Amino acid sequence: MANIKFHLVTPNDNQTIELIANWYLNEWHLPIDKTILRLQTITADPSQFQVLMTLDNVPVSTGGIYSHVGLLDREPKFKVFKNWLALVYTTPDKRQQGYGAAICNYIQDYSKHIGLDKIHLFTDTAERLYKRLGWDEIERLNLGERHIVVMKKDLLNDEKNGYQA
């Protein structure tokens, strides 16, 4: 059986931050230098966090809770929502095997553990995953060629509570 572990990324965890920055560059063309700076800032802020998931000590997935996501720059009306699940990434060789759901569940549980009552996200690729995880649709919108759904998760009414430190 595979050994899955979750690690909260710290601002000084340079090797992990660089790995995540490379993943984000390859997947979404996000500049490495900006991603490194953003991750160092996020991981130093107790209201935000980034998680790395390993499988048998090999990094396979990441994601986090951010106070600001790019959608807010394009659609300011969503600034009323705080705590965004964002940049969930799983290595291509581990996709469609439940690891994305595993890291999302961990992030949800950890969010509840630190006192968050609601978290939000937007996606144009993984709506089915998030619906399966109990997320509710808030609104749909088109941003250029992207068909976005904005979703929320009420952590206070979440039946599942599997967070473990």
TrEMBL record:
<dbReference type="Pfam" id="PF00583">
    <property type="entry name" value="Acetyltransf_1"/>
</dbReference>
<dbReference type="InterPro" id="IPR016181">
    <property type="entry name" value="Acyl_CoA_acyltransferase"/>
</dbReference>
<protein>
    <submittedName>
        <fullName>GNAT family N-acetyltransferase</fullName>
    </submittedName>
</protein>
<feature type="domain" description="N-acetyltransferase">
    <location>
        <begin position="4"/>
        <end position="156"/>
    </location>
</feature>
<dbReference type="InterPro" id="IPR000182">
    <property type="entry name" value="GNAT_dom"/>
</dbReference>
